[in-house]
Predict the 3D structure of the following.
Amino acid sequence: MTEETPAPSRLALVFKKRREELNMTQEDVARRVTERLAPPKKLTQQTYAAYEKGKSQSSKHSTIIADVLDLPIAVVLEANLPNGFKPIESASRSNASLIAPHLLVWDEKPPLYDEVEVPLFKEIELPSDSGRSEIQECGTVKLRIGQATLSSMNISAEKIICAQVSGTSMEPVIPNGSTVGIDKSRKTLKDGDIFALSHNNQLRVRILYRLPLGGLRMRSFNRDEYPDEEYSAERVKSEAIVIIGRVFWYSVLR
């Protein structure tokens, strides 16, 4: 009795379609991914082909494959949403805040080989009962992110800051309490990618899209409760919307 091969995953189908649009072979993808991995790690053409065909239902290199294919990370995250989940103007509200130090701070022993220390940011309430806040640096935290991993993604440890997502706007992909890593060196808006931004000095994490004439669309994964927000270039300026950096990593504690 012959065992049937499972259908390819949603993400594998997205990768295959994009690869063909770029006129790339499976060997091209495997080679470019391998170039970004720390030796002796590699992705072979056979392994990638098995993933596209459905013989493998997941790939530990999916975020690097997406980058090689010039796809935003949101594509990877949305492809892993539960079946039937529908990712769709609400008032501006902060959805990121201080990373609780006990989540990521390790003891004061010598740092591990794959440990980097990065700035910690939070919103500080201003005096005079104004209800206003300001994003400020507040100490540092130590993260266990391998230097080789950062190098493969062309990210410098000196450009990383962190925040903690609060609320349900990015559920179920980035749940309440998730820690996100932000690359401050990447502020160029790429449609469908996830960014941290300052909005009237509120710290927010959203999927961003460009609109004509310099406008901006903010999108949540939980679009049923948090519909898209659209801002003209004038509102972007008047409401002090500034991109802090691209979210390249997140960690979930449930």
